[in-house]
Recover the amino acids of this structure.
């Protein structure tokens, strides 16, 4: 067996061959580079979404009753990692604000009908966290875990830190929920800057469509937590 190199291990040749711009290479170099920048931002987002999908699925599995304290601790590890990755994805959107709009306008026609709204991995994350159309599958197992430990969400919120590991699961969920919301708001702001009130390449109204889809996951947990503070 030969020596494994960094480039072999990470499949660098394949990885770096995947940023194929659609604008003809004869176009202005700055425009070609702007499209490469756009592709890299989307591809790296998809790579991180691959990790998030797997981590959230594992977190949900760890919460499935019967779940002991060790399982709950493990779910927290997965959840906290997702929370941190979401912060990174938010940062990546801010980086994209450095895409000059005049260059974007030049390569945008080459995107055809391709759009982030078709991202299967983002949809998987939204299903796990819940949106307007579907309740969160992750929250459902969280409720089951709380019940398995002889509590209700109300008890949990009332006890706060006294509920120990379950309290920390709840906090980790809320952190992810807020990270998701931050991403949606940043994406909305970026889109508004880049396309104004024009339609999206995916055929939606664009900014209006996105604004309606900015939701905060785990509304029940938020509500019950708030009520637990009332005297
Ligand atoms: C210049 C940058 C970007 C622009 C102008 C933009 C524009 C848009 C628009 C207009 C939509 C509405 C759907 C449609 O196309 O009709 C959309 C949806 C979406 N885009 Fe982007 N986008 C950008 C960057 C990104 C990045 C980096 C990602 C990361 C993968 C992303 C992921 C998504 C997702 C997941 C949706 C659906 C959102 C939802 O369901 O609420 N976008 N984008």
């Amino acid at each position: 067996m030969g020596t494994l190199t960094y480039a072999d291990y990470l499949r660098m040749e394949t990885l770096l061959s995947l940023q194929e711009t659609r604008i003809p290479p004869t176009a202005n170099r700055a425009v070609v580079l702007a499209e490469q920048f756009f592709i890299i931002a989307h591809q790296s987002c998809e790579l991180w979404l691959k990790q998030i999908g797997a981590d959230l699925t594992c977190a949900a599995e760890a919460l499935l009753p019967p779940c002991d304290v060790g399982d709950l601790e493990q779910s927290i590890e997965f959840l906290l990692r997702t929370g941190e990755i979401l912060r990174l994805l938010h940062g990546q959107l801010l980086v994209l604000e450095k895409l000059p709009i005049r260059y974007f306008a030049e390569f945008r026609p080459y995107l055809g009908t391709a759009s982030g709204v078709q991202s299967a991995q983002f949809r998987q994350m939204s299903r796990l966290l819940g949106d307007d159309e579907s309740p969160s599958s992750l929250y459902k197992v969280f409720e089951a875990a709380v019940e398995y430990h002889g509590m209700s969400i109300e008890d949990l919120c009332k006890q706060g830190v006294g509920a120990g590991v379950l309290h920390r699961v709840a906090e980790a969920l809320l952190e992810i929920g807020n990270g998701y919301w931050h991403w949606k708001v940043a994406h909305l702001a970026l889109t508004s800057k880049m396309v104004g009130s024009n339609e999206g390449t995916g055929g939606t109204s664009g900014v209006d469509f996105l604004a309606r889809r900015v939701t905060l996951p785990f509304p029940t947990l938020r509500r019950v937590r708030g009520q637990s503070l009332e005297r």
In short: The first helix runs from residue 6 to 9. The mean pLDDT is 96. Residues 41-42, 45, 93, 96, 99, 115-117, 119, 122, 187, 190-191, 194-195, 200-204, 206, 209-210, 213 surround protoporphyrin IX containing FE (CB under 6 Å).
